[in-house]
Amino acid sequence: MTARLLAQKLSEYWKQPVVVDNRPGASGMIGAGAVARSANDGYTLLIGSPAEIAINPALYPKMAYDPFKDLAPISPVAKFPLLVVANTQSSLKSFKDLAAQSRDAKDGVAFATSGIGSMQQLVGEWLKRNADINLLHVPYKGTGPAMNDLLGGQIPVAVMGLAPLIPHIKAGNLRALAITSSERNPAVPNVPTLKELGYDFESTIWFGVFAPEGTPKEVIRKIGQDLRVVLADKGVEEQMLKLGGETASASPEEFTSFISDEFAKYSKIIKDANIKM
């Protein structure tokens, strides 16, 4: 959705077609690898996320590309928070309830995610080790199956991205206990951040634009400037808000520094939790 929205706006701004070529698979590495091997002329770009840029390098011993050497960061474009969420039929009314009940659970309170090594799992693992919350990870093969079991009451808690949760929260089927962004989100304004709850941790599913390494700096600067123009469009901001996210922007240097911090954060979680792929 983010890529298609950007492509539409950039097509209008550049007055030439911008084509989205979906290359799913291998946790985003197929698409990222294809861009890394492309000509560094600025005509092939990647919309990348934490998985293929900052998480996979710590999970997989071998990758077909090196995100730190083969891709040039241009700018972030959007970020979406995750939620710690519970079925409303459970006795969990707050994050405090979750912490308290987890300490009485021998094996921990089960929490669903979209899979092993997912950002959702990493959030749960951080909470387990740093927030004195006893959690048991239950990985699913994607968000859909996890959502079905959460709504059906087969599992009490999940860590998921905000967007697919919004209709279920509004319908009263799910209760959000905490949000992982640094500030509250307009889509769920009553949900406290982890920082408000006393935990110094932030995690968002961000998306950013990358070019093959070696792309001329003036081309990268021009693309970054044009991205800032289209991201300032009120229609783009409104679309992001409907999806539970917000636009983001930074210079290539700032984005590079941010990615380095993200890699350090997630690498430590993966090592501490001994997550293997």
UniProtKB/TrEMBL annotation:
Keywords: Receptor
Domain of life: Bacteria
Keyword RNA-binding: no
Any single Pfam family the record assigns to this protein: TctC
Transmembrane segments: none
InterPro entries linked: BUG, Bug_dom1
Keyword Signal attributed: no
Family listed: Belongs to the UPF0065 (bug) family.
PANTHER family attached to this UniProt entry: BLR1237 PROTEIN, TRICARBOXYLATE-BINDING PROTEIN
Name this polypeptide is given: Tripartite-type tricarboxylate transporter receptor subunit TctC
Lineage of the species this protein comes from: Bacteria, Pseudomonadati, Pseudomonadota, Betaproteobacteria, Burkholderiales
